[in-house]
Design goal:
Structural class: alpha/beta
Radius of gyration: 20 Å
Largest sheet: 7 strands, mixed
Number of helices: 10
Number of domains: 2
Length: about 350
């Protein structure tokens, strides 16, 4: 049996890369995947930033890699300018890209270190764009290995017959967890929330489950507590866009209320924490919560399965207000454990293991 997980989203190189021939950042459009596999070509810094903001790319590590590739593009396009101007352009580009999505910490770390790689290259007389691309590609590869190790530790926690509830899309680690658990001979069943308004669960999580031949049932975002009350969920597993040193996590809005229901019904809650907490985030109070445009709530986004074209239907009357915080924060006492590439850790002690 191959050692390569067959799920599309298990390898980030499947979904984003720098196309040197076209001089463009290529991003899988997750708004219409899996009904159509389309890549958005970003040929400027601003196009890359807007693609991140408009949800072409989703998930903490992928949007960080997309931003890093946007910095590559900008550096290459300014390579003929004086060194001082190249440095200033990269710093300005870093600020623009860092402002795209504030909650996930990967974005800020990747951009910071990509800028350092570019500036070090300029100091030595080398090409900044090449140095930044080498760094970003190495980070994508490192992230792939982190996902696999995190998924392996999570798979070891699962029992044969587990019915797993997940929220939004937990990314590459979820794919590896499911695939490796199957290789261990464990039969699983996945319950996926639809995840309004972008329906990441309805599209991306279910597609991953089908690619791995894991039985999957789609539910609405309002159903998890009922399923737990009926005894139909054995554990709740999701990812985290940021983990504080004190064990608070931020994830797609709705995670906190599922954690409350899990506590009430004695359902273990495990977080796929990838490479662990953010060393710069002391507590949950330090996690910024992105607030997206309210009109995103007024539209039901779908895709015509015949043509692959995106379809949008208004679902409410004109004149109403909307409020859309994209993430919420769950305290550590509602979390059973945080699973990382280094192992499984109690949430309220995780900072001491990673500092």
């Amino acid at each position: 049996m191959t050692d390569r997980c067959p799920a599309m989203l298990s390898d980030r190189f499947n979904t984003l890369y720098f196309d040197a021939e076209r001089e463009a950042v290529q991003l899988l459009d997750r708004r219409c995947y899996p009904f159509s596999t389309e890549f958005v070509s970003c040929r400027t810094l601003e196009e890359t930033a807007r693609a991140i903001e408009s949800m072409v790319v989703q998930g903490g590590p992928p949007l960080a890699y997309a931003a890093g590739l946007g910095l590559v593009l900008h550096a290459l396009q300014g390579a003929a300018r004086p060194v001082a101007e190249q440095r200033a352009r990269m710093q300005e580009a870093g600020r623009r890209l860092a402002a795209t999505r504030p909650t996930a910490d990967d974005l800020h770390h990747v951009l910071r270190d990509a800028l350092r790689a570019g500036e070090a290259a300029l100091d030595s007389g080398a090409a900044a764009g090449t140095a930044v691309l080498d760094y970003v590609n190495s980070e994508i590869e490192r992230g792939n290995q982190v996902s696999r190790r995190c998924g392996r530790h999570a798979a070891d926690l699962l029992r044969d017959g587990d019915r797993i509830l997940t929220h939004c899309i937990a990314g590459a680690a979820l794919a590896w967890m499911l695939w490796l658990a199957k290789r261990q001979g464990k039969a699983l069943h996945l319950f996926a929330t639809e995840t309004r308004p972008y329906l990441q669960g309805a599209r991306l999580t279910t597609a991953t489950a089908r690619e791995l031949d894991v039985p999957c049932t789609l539910i609405t975002d309002a159903m998890p507590a009922f399923l737990m009350q009926q005894g139909r969920v054995d554990r709740f597993i999701c990812a985290a866009d940021r983990i504080a040193l004190d064990g608070h996590i931020s994830n797609k809005v709705g995670t906190y209320q599922i954690a409350l229901a899990a506590r009430r019904h004695g359902v273990p809650f495990h977080v796929l924490g990838y490479d662990g907490p953010d060393a710069d985030t002391q507590s949950g109070d330090d996690i910024p919560i992105e607030e997206r445009a309210a009109d995103e709530l007024f539209i039901a986004r779908g895709v015509d399965p015949e043509s692959g074209a995106q379809a949008r239907v208004r679902i409410t009357v004109n004149g109403v207000d909307g409020y859309y915080p994209a993430f919420d924060i769950t305290p550590p006492d509602f979390i059973t454990a945080i699973v990382t590439d280094r192992g499984v850790f109690p949430p309220d002690e995780i900072g001491s293991y990673f500092l």
